[in-house]
Specification:
Layout: H1 2-22, E1 33-40, H2 41-47, H3 56-65, E2 69-83, E3 89-96, H4 100-104, E4 110-111, E5 123-127, H5 129-136, E6 146-149, E7 152-159, E8 184-187, H6 192-195, E9 204-209, H7 215-232, H8 234-237, E10 240-246, H9 247-252, H10 256-287, H11 289-297, H12 302-338, H13 353-378, H14 383-391, H15 398-433, E11 444-450, H16 458-473, E12 478-484, E13 495-500, E14 512-519, H17 523-527, E15 531-534, E16 545-549, H18 550-556, E17 566-568, E18 578-585, E19 600-604, E20 612-619, H19 627-637, E21 644-648, H20 649-656, H21 658-692, H22 694-702, H23 707-736, H24 752-778, H25 782-788
Parallel strand pairs: 3-8, 5-7, 14-19, 16-18
Antiparallel strand pairs: 1-9, 1-10, 2-3, 2-6, 2-9, 4-7, 5-8, 6-7, 11-20, 11-21, 12-20, 13-14, 13-17, 15-18, 16-19, 17-18
């Protein structure tokens, strides 16, 4: 059972690690695929971004001036409404440049990819295989068919392979808004004005290196181009450079620390299992000491007995490995149920030949690990002494006893190290979910609506949303209703430079950057965001007014009231309308609960009408009961308009911390298994020791010792091993937990409380493990024990 748990856990985690980190990417010459990101040290320090997309003008400069890439391609997110094929549906899409699929080396399984001149024939798209099967019945003649996307005709050029979904949410930095499962790739046709834009950083880039070119060469090449652009356009590009990342690093780099931690955790579990089995085999070998010595006396060679012992270990390990495959299959299903939805490649992970080979190899290595000590000790028995010890009814020997004790110390040390790491992750998760997000999550329903620009002008879109929010606010059970351009923690970023009146001109690259949101009346009430100063937001705004959060007020006008001050939503040197601050609201966390607070600006929907908005409803009861009524309200205004991403605010928050929960739960489970195995191992050793010393215990009782004295004797000897193991484990944890720092939030890697509580838990568990054999010692009958002698 111990081996099945240890080997099964390792096989399951290996399958995920193999799928995510080890298997080659399914692209031609994938090691030459790179993703260049723009980087600003100032942006990283102030807002926490270590990589950002490029502006269209920067992209064309990089593509045209570089000497290290065969080709560079761009991509940006999009959500589209698919209509005319049953019920209207909101689907994930990606706008890509014409070179995109050539760069990746991906070819459609039906039809063709993008070609020069396609932009002259209206909107053209490639679709994913899931959409092809669901909406087109796997029709092989789908190429050339026309569908309606956002009310605009789009011609299907081909169908992509089933495995292709790049770029999906989780593979690119949080906040870019990419769909979890994109099913449409559309040719991105930029207007001349868009091609000249250097301020809006919206294009993620992917490129293929020329043969023989290194990452360092590409990095230097693009960095030089970025420096030239910064000198030519300091207003928008000062302080910006480029970082080139391999595609694999971009796809899985953020997951690597968590997966390595899981590998270490299951490795510890396996080592404890090996120590457990080694101890059991040592006891078995000690029990056979007289038999082994008799065989030596009759001429058996020591090497033959060593090979026999190792053969038994191999058989045991193979059986444990086969049972471990069953455990791995069950554990993998459970693991993928717990895993975040955006864990790349793992969703398709299942037991395969790689896992079987890994399990066989690991079983053989394990057999050597736990079989070596018993085999070695069987060669150290002196025949004459062994026969004499056997005649006295005693088994084992000092060497075997020391080895068993050392294995118990090792088990306890490993268990306490893993338990400390697990408790640090538990504290991280607890502190994260108790972070003040700045808004209420209870009884809130959200949904997203995107009106097609072909069917709606800005004026008609405004009319639609105003009518919709009026309908929703009047629904039974609705306490408050509002609209926003971006729901907190939903994965969408909208950063905007802001100029505060009265502040000196900022240095290039050090502008004031804010989270920008368009909202309507009712939004603050729906999310419970408090108004701290000034006026509340009304149903309409005929004058240019904005609302800012506490952080913006403090940064822009330190020590003064922000109400009545003016700001413009653009850089210092650019022309723009001035807005008056009408009120100050509480800080909210939009990007993540573990991210620092940022300046935020809210503007009324009537000042900046959008075609895409999110509905936020606060209900008096269960918010999910409003879904059908809200959908009917939308359908009443436009039967062809779908709603998307219908979620409660609690679901959004839960999703935002899913990765942390995944780490905490898994390592917590493995830590529990480790502690259990360590306590079982301690119990086995102490129990064996009591059994081997039955004569001694009886003699002590016969000479006047009280049963309580024997209990203390057994507990003292067992807990001495535990104390030594805890000391070793705490020392190891002080060194090893610093590698967990990237996974921690709000707790120090050497947190004093954790380093006290975790050993205490293990000590109490060990005490309970020693009590049963200790109580058995006090019940020894002296007459029976001496008669046995």
């Amino acid at each position: 059972m111990a081996l099945a748990l240890g080997l099964g856990a390792n096989a399951a985690i290996f399958r995920v690690v193999d799928a995510v980190l080890l298997q080659p990417l399914p692209y031609r010459d994938a090691d030459r695929l790179m993703m260049p990101w723009e980087f600003s040290e100032d942006m990283q320090q102030r807002l926490g971004f270590d990589r950002l997309p490029s502006s269209p003008a920067d992209f064309f400069d990089y593509a045209g001036r570089n000497t290290t890439f065969e080709r560079l391609a761009s991509m940006r997110t999009e959500q589209v409404n698919l209509t005319g094929r049953g019920e209207p549906e909101r689907i994930g899409a990606v706008r890509v440049s014409a070179e995109f699929f050539d760069v990746l080396g991906v070819q459609p399984i039906i039809g063709r990819s993008f070609q020069p001149g396609d932009e002259m024939h209206g909107r053209v798209v490639l679709i994913g295989q899931s959409l092809w099967r669901r909406s087109f019945g796997s029709d092989p003649g789908v190429a050339g068919r026309v569908v309606a996307l956002n009310g605009e005709p789009a011609t299907i050029l081909g169908v992509l392979p089933a495995w292709f979904r790049f770029p999906a949410a989780g593979e690119l930095p949080q906040g870019f808004g990419f769909s979890l499962n994109p099913v449409v790739w559309t040719l991105d046709v930029l207007t001349p004005e868009q091609r000249r834009n250097r301020g809006g950083k919206s294009l993620a880039l992917v490129g293929r290196l020329k043969a023989g070119v290194t990452i360092a060469d590409a990095q230097a090449d693009l960095a030089n181009i970025a420096a030239d652009i910064a000198r030519e356009f300091p207003a928008t590009n000062a302080g910006w450079t480029v970082h080139v990342l391999p595609l694999r690093e971009q796809l899985v780099g953020s997951l690597r620390p968590a997966l390595i931690a899981l590998v270490a955790a299951v490795g510890v579990v396996l080592l404890i299992a090996c120590a457990n089995v080694a101890n059991l085999l040592l006891v078995r070998t000690a029990g056979r000491q007289r038999e082994i010595c008799v065989r030596y006396a009759l001429g058996a060679s020591r090497s033959s007995l060593v090979w026999e012992s190792l053969a038994e270990s191999v058989i045991l390990a193979v059986v444990g490995g086969l049972a471990g495959l069953l455990v791995a299959s069950w554990m993998l299903r459970a693991l993928l149920t717990l895993a975040p939805a955006y864990l790349p490649a793992a969703a398709e992970a299942g037991l395969d030949a790689h896992v079987v080979i890994f399990s066989i190899v690991l079983s053989l290595v394990t057999a050597v690990l736990f079989g070596a000590a018993p085999a070695w000790h069987s060669t150290r028995y002196e025949t004459a002494e062994g026969l004499r010890e056997g005649s006295r009814g005693m088994v084992g020997g000092r060497h075997a006893t020391r080895t068993r004790n050392a294995l118990v110390v090792l088990e306890v040390a490993l268990a306490v190290t893993l338990l400390i790491g697990s408790m640090l992750l538990v504290q991280t998760f607890i502190r994260l979910i108790h972070v003040n997000a700045g808004f209420r999550t209870d009884r809130v329903l959200t949904m997203e609506i995107a009106l097609p620009r072909t069917a709606y002008t800005p004026a008609s879109a405004s009319t639609f949303f105003v009518a919709l929010i009026d309908r929703l606010a009047g629904l039974p059970g609705v306490e408050a209703a509002g609209l926003t351009s971006g729901v907190p923690l939903s994965g969408s970023e909208n950063l905007l430079p802001v100029t505060a009146e009265g502040r000196p001109r900022p240095e290039p690259g050090h502008e004031l950057i804010s989270d920008y949101r368009v909202i309507t009346a009712g939004y603050f009430e729906a999310l419970g965001i408090p108004l701290l100063e000034g006026d509340s937001i009304g149903p309409s705004a005929n004058v240019r007014r904005v609302w800012v959060n506490q952080t913006m007020a403090r940064v822009a006008w330190p020590g003064r009231s922000a109400v009545g001050r003016r700001l413009k939503l653009t850089n210092y040197d650019r022309d723009g309308a001035w807005y008056t601050v009408a009120g100050v609201v509480g800080d909210t966390r939009y990007t993540g609960l573990d991210r620092a607070l940022r300046p935020q600006v809210y503007v009324h929907f009537s000042q900046d009408p959008r075609e895409q908005m999110a509905v936020v409803l606060r209900s008096y009861g269960d918010p999910t009961l409003l879904v059908n009524s809200a959908r009917q309200a939308v359908q009443a205004l436009d039967p062809n308009q779908p709603i998307a991403r219908v979620r409660t605010m609690e679901q959004i928050v839960t999703t935002s911390v899913a990765n942390r929960r995944f780490q905490m739960v898994l390592i917590g489970i493995f830590a529990t298994v480790a502690v259990t195995l360590a306590v079982v191992g301690l119990y086995a050793v102490v129990s064996y020791s009591v059994g081997a010393r039955t004569h001694e215990m009886g003699l002590r009782l016969a000479l006047g010792a009280r049963p309580a004295n024997l209990v203390r004797l057994v507990l003292r000897e067992g807990l001495q091993l535990v104390t030594i193991g805890i000391a070793v484990g705490v020392g190891a944890a002080l060194v090893l937990t610093r590698f967990l720092e990237a996974l921690l939030f709000g707790v120090d890697a050497r947190d004093t409380t954790t380093f006290i509580v975790a050993p205490a838990i293990l000590f109490v568990a060990a005490l309970l493990g020693c009590l049963a054999p200790a109580r058995r010692a006090m019940r020894v009958d002296p007459a029976v024990a001496l008669r046995a002698e």
